[in-house]
């Protein structure tokens, strides 16, 4: 039996007992009033338990719903007249008490309710996948104010121990008070920047981690001492791989001397050969066993990942040795050529165009690592030799006027780099070791012989969350071999890209926050799973940008004039019944205690 029937039965029994007591009462005065008061009191009591609803009619657009997303102002929700829904993925807890129905999956909901033609979306909006499922519907956006916080962020998830860690992004301060943004790592403040009120400012933090392995820095936003954001920045510092380097020098200048010491200090296996006189050489072997370097051939070059040579030495060696170097570069070895004159002296170095400009005395050289958008400290040298970018070239190092000083080109399976910088050791002499390290570690990593089977790995989305879909995209060197992809010993089923056969992807739903172990062909590729509320401002800004792009490409497809008579059931306020019960009970008490005694 339903509860309401039990409540009615109990109230009827109570009413019968009350009426029986009234009729048995000796004093029959005011009997009618007492019976009416008893009926009213028990009736109101019953209606307090059992809600009473009534039917109303609302004229609204045909087949439209109101969808509440993150950022919706709770005060505006009460003004919405119509069917309100909220996505279960929304983080706004204050909206979940707005009597809006929850939707687990927007795509499935729209497919199940085929009569819906229009979506009224409040707040920051929908994700890219949710917007795709809403194509073909008339969309009406009611956007919220721009979020305050980090709306863009980028950093390298993996760095070598010799490189600096760089965090860059954009902070949007929509408030009326300034914000202090701090980068903290291992319990200490690394760097900070102030963001003015009602402004959007880029930020850039650079740090040289002293530890290796997994680490989590934090970006903390403070406003008058209060923490308004605290975002994790996970990354991995890897040991420098055993990259074998061969240097062939026409003479041991200061550039080679400092480079040789830096390579030794950073555990690079190094073979160094310097010419003393014709066909006579001085050799050094650091972090590796010695071998015969009197004659350079293909067998010798296969032992090394990078060859560094100046143009004078390249011209001095015989034709057979130059041919071996050219073939080795085409087969994967990295070739680094130092030049000092405007006129090329070998066919290898002649592949790159160069030019001279008048030297500006007492000037310093400002350098940028082009693809990393990173600036190096000014180099105190005079520079007049520069390079021209060819059609197939990729400039690596430029000055502040965008003139090229280090250029590169693919050569078969390898890469050739040519540099007109002759005195980078001045960074070390002026105490700028970090810039010297950034320069050489970047260039060596660009041209080193590729050894790993896994060429690249991408994770979508940028900030994976527990129990949400995550996609791994791996580019492999072997096209037709099915890769083995596992997460914590759970094997995934990879799919091959039909257009790019070397590319494979796999789908998973991570089960735990923090670091997770991913294995691709027994090669570990750890990744970080974030908490649900991490990087919320960035995600909300991404929704805003997706919304604006969607509006540019969308077309209304619904009938804008169609309206329908919607039936809505409203509940009668229980305060009326409570007031009736209170007045009736008060009258019965007053009549039996005061009027009767008079």
From TrEMBL:
<keyword id="KW-0472">Membrane</keyword>
<feature type="transmembrane region" description="Helical">
    <location>
        <begin position="35"/>
        <end position="54"/>
    </location>
</feature>
<keyword id="KW-1133">Transmembrane helix</keyword>
<protein>
    <recommendedName>
        <fullName>N-terminal double-transmembrane domain-containing protein</fullName>
    </recommendedName>
</protein>
<feature type="transmembrane region" description="Helical">
    <location>
        <begin position="6"/>
        <end position="23"/>
    </location>
</feature>
<keyword id="KW-0812">Transmembrane</keyword>
């Amino acid at each position: 039996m339903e509860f309401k029937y039990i409540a009615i039965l109990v109230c009827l029994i109570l009413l019968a007992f009350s009426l029986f007591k009234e009729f048995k009462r000796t004093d029959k005065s005011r009997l009618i009033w007492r019976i009416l008061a008893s009926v009213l009191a028990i009736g109101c009591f019953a209606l307090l338990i059992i809600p009473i609803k009534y039917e109303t009619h609302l004229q609204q657009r045909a087949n439209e719903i109101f969808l509440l997303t993150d950022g919706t102002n709770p005060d505006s929700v009460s003004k919405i007249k119509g069917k309100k829904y909220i996505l279960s993925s929304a983080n706004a807890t204050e909206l979940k008490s707005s009597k809006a129905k929850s939707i687990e999956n927007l795509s499935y909901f729209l497919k199940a309710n085929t009569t819906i033609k229009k979506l009224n979306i409040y707040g920051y909006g929908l994700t890219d996948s949710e917007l795709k499922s809403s194509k073909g519907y008339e969309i009406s956006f009611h956007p919220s104010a721009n979020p305050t916080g980090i709306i863009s962020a980028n950093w390298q998830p993996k760095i070598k121990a010799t490189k600096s860690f760089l965090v860059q992004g954009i902070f949007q301060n929509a408030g009326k008070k300034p914000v202090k943004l701090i980068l903290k790592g291992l319990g200490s403040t690394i760097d900070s920047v102030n963001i003015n009120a009602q402004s959007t400012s880029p930020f850039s933090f650079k740090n040289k981690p002293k530890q290796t392995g997994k680490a989590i820095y934090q970006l903390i936003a403070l406003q008058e001492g209060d923490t308004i954001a605290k975002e994790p920045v996970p990354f991995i510092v890897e040991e420098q791989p055993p990259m074998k380097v061969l240097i062939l020098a026409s003479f041991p200048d200061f550039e080679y001397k400092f480079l040789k010491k830096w390579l030794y200090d950073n555990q690079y296996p190094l073979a160094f050969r310097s010419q003393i006189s014709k066909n006579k050489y001085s050799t050094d072997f650091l972090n590796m066993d010695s071998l015969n370097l009197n004659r350079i051939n293909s067998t010798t070059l296969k032992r090394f990942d990078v060859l560094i040579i100046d143009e004078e030495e390249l011209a001095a060696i015989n034709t057979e040795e130059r041919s071996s170097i050219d073939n080795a570069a085409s087969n994967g070895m990295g070739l680094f050529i130092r030049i000092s004159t405007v006129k090329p002296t070998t066919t290898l170095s002649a592949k790159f165009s160069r030019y001279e400009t008048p030297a500006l005395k007492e000037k310093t050289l400002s350098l940028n690592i082009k693809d990393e958008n990173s600036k190096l400290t000014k180099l105190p040298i005079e520079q007049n030799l520069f390079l021209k970018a060819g059609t197939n070239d990729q400039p690596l190092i430029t000055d502040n006027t965008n003139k090229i000083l280090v250029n590169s080109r693919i050569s078969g399976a390898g890469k050739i780099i040519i540099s007109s910088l002759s005195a980078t050791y001045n960074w070390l002499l002026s105490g700028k070791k970090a810039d010297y390290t950034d320069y050489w570690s970047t260039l060596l990593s660009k041209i080193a012989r590729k050894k790993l089977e896994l060429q690249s790995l991408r994770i979508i989305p940028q900030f994976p969350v527990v129990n949400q879909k995550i996609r791994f995209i791996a580019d492999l060197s072997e096209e037709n071999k099915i890769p083995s992809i596992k997460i914590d010993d759970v094997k995934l089923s990879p799919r091959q890209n039909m257009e790019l056969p070397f590319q494979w992807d796999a789908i998973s739903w991570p089960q735990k926050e923090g670091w997770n172990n991913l294995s691709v062909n027994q090669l570990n590729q750890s990744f970080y799973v974030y908490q649900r509320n991490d990087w919320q401002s960035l995600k909300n800004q991404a929704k805003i940008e997706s919304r604006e792009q969607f509006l540019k490409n969308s077309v209304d497809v619904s009938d804008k004039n169609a309206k329908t008579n919607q039936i809505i059931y409203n509940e009668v306020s229980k305060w009326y019944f409570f007031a009736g019960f209170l007045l009736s009970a008060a009258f019965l008490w007053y009549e039996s205690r005061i009027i009767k005694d008079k």
